[in-house]
Amino acid sequence: AMMASAQSDLISMVSTKIELELQSDLVEPQGALYPYKRLSARNYAMTYSSEASASSKCPHGNTRIDLSKYNSDYIYYCHQDCANYVSQAMAAGQCPQDANWRYDAANKSAPEAWRRVTKMYEYFTGMQYWSASSFTNCNAGGIIINENTNGTKYHVNMCVLNDSVNRAYAAHNSDHNNKAYGSNYWGSDTVYYFVFTVRVDE
Fold this sequence. Notes:
Blueprint lengths: L1 H25 L9 E2 H10 L34 H11 L19 H4 L1 H10 L3 E3 L10 E5 L5 E10 L4 E5 L4 E5 L9 E7 L2 E2 L2
Parallel strand pairs: 1-8
Antiparallel strand pairs: 2-7, 3-4, 3-7, 4-5, 5-6
Helix pairs in contact: 2-3
């Protein structure tokens, strides 16, 4: 009886240890509540953008876009759609949502953190969903933010490829899909790279 009890206690201890290890794989102290499916986000980003031709301009003539590649379930913001697009991709990756970052499909509207780069940056860093990364380490489903020489964060892209040799991104306004980039690709911009604190590969 004593041996059976000891075996039962050992099994219980091992089960608890395994459960804690599984939890630690998903949850970090400063992390998001749920793991982000970064490849689902990457797949969405590559589905709903394109390499728009120079002749395919927005109605204001400001940027190259191809609306036939956009997801018609969402509103789009003419020549200002980059954050809206990246938000859609992050939502496809099952990023947690709340009232400050959630698309209102019924009214075809969205809060500022969904559709404006500066507010998106403030929201996701404030919630600690994003962890600072680098050109070297930012991988598919990661976030790339451009800041101009005036210190304004004005554009956001999604990394769709990093195999340690080749890197590519997708974006709206101007539209790009699987567009190669290097460490100096954005010239004088300061470039911020982020990955999700808790992420999984499907």
